[in-house]
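Hello, quick one for you while I still have it in my head. No rush at all, and the record is pasted right below.
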Amino acid sequence: MSYCDYVNNNPSELPDYLLHKHYHDHQYGFTIDDDDELFGRLILEINQAGLSWTLMLRKQQSFRNAYSNFSIEKIAQYDETDRERLLLDPGIIRNRLKINAAIINAQKIVELKKEYGSFKAWLDAHHPLTITEWLKLFKKNFKFVGGEIVNEFLMSTGYLPGAHSEECPVYLRVKS
């Protein structure tokens, strides 16, 4: 079953369904121009590893609050006090490896921005690539990025096709 089928044909768990429906209809597969929002999506994808996307959708605002509104520049400056604060925050996933990855990845994006101007420009400079090529590039530059994380991040931000089936009402909006 595709994500489109799940969202468009399965309104059984109402609160969770509404979360998924909003994400599906307004975010999933759409390009993101703002670097901090792109990075926020990467943080959510990394934190979803081993867990459900429903949980990430439920905790999205808590992640935004805990991680300085996903500000790459601010997160890159996080120190041990910030790490401890995040590890104690019940609103997010309190996993040291994932928290460290967010900080290290923010620092790496700050470096990439010096050369490319923005995180989006770095992504655009490499687009299009196959998923295998993207994975190699992400593993070279970032922490805690496996195949599923990279695939979902790129699909959810419009860099890889397949976010929506052609029969989905959102497909044409994403395509344009």
Remarks:
- The chain has a mean pLDDT of 95.
- Residues 1-30+163-176 form one domain.
- The chain has two domains: 1-30+163-176, 34-157.
- The chain is about 65% helix and 0% strand.
